[in-house]
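Example complex used in Figure S2.
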Amino acid sequence: MKDLKHPHKFIIFSEIFKALKNSIVPLIIFLMSAGSKILKNYGGNYTLISLVIAFLVIIIVLAIVKWKKNVYSVDEEGIYIKYGVFEIHERTVPFSQVQSADISSSLVQRLFNVYKLEIDTAGGDKKSEISILLSKEEALILKSSIFKGYRNKDEVEITEEKDIKTFTSSLKDLFMLATMSSRILVGVSIIIAFYSKIEDIIPKEFKKRAEVFGEDVMKDANGTSIIKFVVALTFIMLFISWIISIIITIIKYYNFTVIREEDNIKLSYGLFDKKEVTIPVKRIQSLIIVEGVIKKPLGYFSLNVETIGYGKDKGESTMLCPIARRKVLNKFFEDILPEMNITYDLMKSPRKALKGFLSFRLFRDFIIISIIAIFVPYGYYVYLLIPILIIWRYIRFKDNGLYYSNDFVVIRYRKLARKTVIIHKECIQSIEKVQNVFQKRKAIAKYKVTIAGNTLGKSYKALYMNENHIEDIV
Amino acid sequence: MKKISPHSRKLWTIDGLITTGIFLAIAVVLNIFLDFNSLWKYVLVCSLYALALIILINSLFMPKYKYEKFKYEMDEEKIIIKYGVFTEKNIVIPMKRVQYVDTEQGIILRKYKLINLTVHTAGGHYEIPYLESAVGNEIQLNIAKIVQERSI
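Predicted assembly (626 residues):
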């Protein structure tokens, strides 16, 4: 007989809270409209109040029943869950099919020592197959039993201490991340949005006074001081958004830790909302080293992995490391991912391809620029971008690279950030060589390597390489 | 390298003519019922006509070259598909990664005893169109056999 267990009682509160949150607006509308229309001889306001109370009672009873009906059990093979009040769902997920198990908890949940365990399989559903609220201990035990087969508590603790390699991002690195991320722009937009809100809120008198003050300033001001004013304002804005960005980044990635534990990589990060992610190494399809435009000259990089069946958070790629110094890269590979620790010597795009590469793209750019120039007033200033575009395209061309050995394929390309993708050959689903008429004349081709993705598959392209590689890659 | 059925030329043409017909019908309907009072309506209708014309030309002249360029090959380790007139594509699918193969046969295809074969991998699917039924079914069986052996 299966050993059925209920999830944590906290679920009752969260259900009640969720129901209240969803019904608060209709409820208020109902109260406003029904307000005093109920006749005295039908009980007047008393009826109204009792209706509301009845409503609350229904919500609470429903939540409790929902908790009662929600059971799960774990055995050697898999996890079984049953839930639902009116419609009863039963689901069994064998451990062998589990792709990932995440533990997360919000601030409130942590106060009650409650953690949410979410289990994903390769199935296409966006939502997690199983998500249950558990106490911390239970969640941890369940999670480790998923990835190691079922064991009892003591054994798990022993193995956890055995073979652990960790990697932590320092606070200083997070500062750098915040400084360089595009979140700064988000900060600016928040300030602007906030500013327009402020205009509505502040009292009129104050506004008038401010306007008068502003006019005074403008009267005295000549050209240069206006520029100074604007520059100062911009700096203040950037500074504020920088601080916002730092705060957001630190809250999100605080104490970012990567742990290698036998066949799994565990990530944990977050200040208030602590997140834990487990990625089985076997599921990793490709590893992407991202070198941002600003990050790279400063010697920083970040790492992403692409896994199958892991698609709940932001598409299918998981950040393995938000930021680290270039020097740490080798150590990271040795400790965390020795499987992917390879040396590669990239083949560059041949010189003869440069003309084709540039002319194709610049022709396209030129058409777009011309359209802008014609239809936008003062649009012809856009032509000033052309030298920048040429340089940019040239850099992109220089960064193209392809390498293959018996086990790996490495592709390097740049859109904005330079990305180096390391793919294990076992993971390649198909390889395409694409060659148009002009390229054929010069014996140049584009290679497209497709790996398994969540829904459609993900492909990486190596542009303008020599044409004779395709047979060798597979 | 093996080739697809020579009937494919005719079928591509038929396909193209049907598409042309649809586009032409839409263009004509719009032409009749639309009031031509602004520029974008002219642009819309004209581009529809142009599109129909291009598809027509395409379906009349291209199938010959398309047929000549479409080649495929299959062995124990990989499937190779080559096609494309202006842009040549050369696709290699490792046999290990093939998940399943399906075939389909519409009304017109049935008349010519042809089938379309699609190879599915976890990263996408690739079509080999207009194979003779016998050949296509044989390929499907072969791949199925290889896939099955792999899983044992």
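Chain B is about 55% helix and 30% strand. The first strand of chain B starts at residue 2 and ends at 3.
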